[in-house]
Amino acid sequence: MRQDIWSSAQVNISKTFLGTDYGGYCIHPDKITPDSVVYSAGIGRDIEFDRLMIERYGVAVHAFDPTPRAIAWIRAQDLPQGFHLHEWGLADFDGVAEFAAPVQDTFVSYSMSYGAGPNAESTEGEVCRLATLMERLGHKHVDILKMDIEGAECAVLRDIANTAASIGQILVEFHPGKSHDGLKEMAGAIAKMNTAGYQIFHVSPSGREYSFIRNGA
């Protein structure tokens, strides 16, 4: 799955792992303060990363997910103060998207990246570009953007690079298996981020979770 040219860190900086083996990411902690803005796109049934960001750094986390299983799960949790759920999805366009349900009933993560099929469960949800989310919430800058959006991540990364949005760190799980040219799209998205001034500072052992930092952040 991994290619030598983009399978390892491009810059050596301090990093801290937060979360579970299933939903954890590495951040660069040095400049994180209680005033830092954290966006978490894609909730599923794991908000340990978000909890730890709130507990350790005193930040507010804005979480985004429009899918019914995730929303129902979140509403049943004892959420920490500072966790804010927004029932919008992150995409590379503003509008309404169809989300295909996971095949297994015990799974929670819906996907925009491929059709649901004639007999599969699907749902519609409002989605927004990152720039639109920032405008709605009144943010000019995001310090950390975490994305686990089930195959839509490459399109969002390209949109971020094209609009030159002010994001300090981007933590993303790639899902190349959810696209016909998934590895090619993944490599292209990483190259696009490099061109936009972002460098990799961590790659997980699975080669799916990447952490990027913007030059000068």
Rg calculated over all Cα atoms: 16 Å
Can you tell me the overall shape? globular
Helix vs. strand class: alpha/beta
Mean pLDDT over the residues: 88
Biggest sheet strand line-up: 5-4-3-9-10-12-11
How much helicity do the residues have?
Answer: 10-25%
Q: Note the total helix count.
A: 5
Spans with pLDDT under 50 lasting ≥5 residues?
1-5, 115-119
What is CATH's topology name?
Rossmann fold
- Helix and strand succession? EEEHEHEEEEHEHEHEE
Strand content: 25-35%
How many beta-strand segments?
Answer: 12
CATH level 1 class label: Alpha Beta
CATH architecture: 3-Layer(aba) Sandwich
Largest sheet: 7 strands, mixed
The CATH superfamily label reads Vaccinia Virus protein VP39
Count of all domains: 1
**Measured distance between first and last alpha carbons:** 29 Å
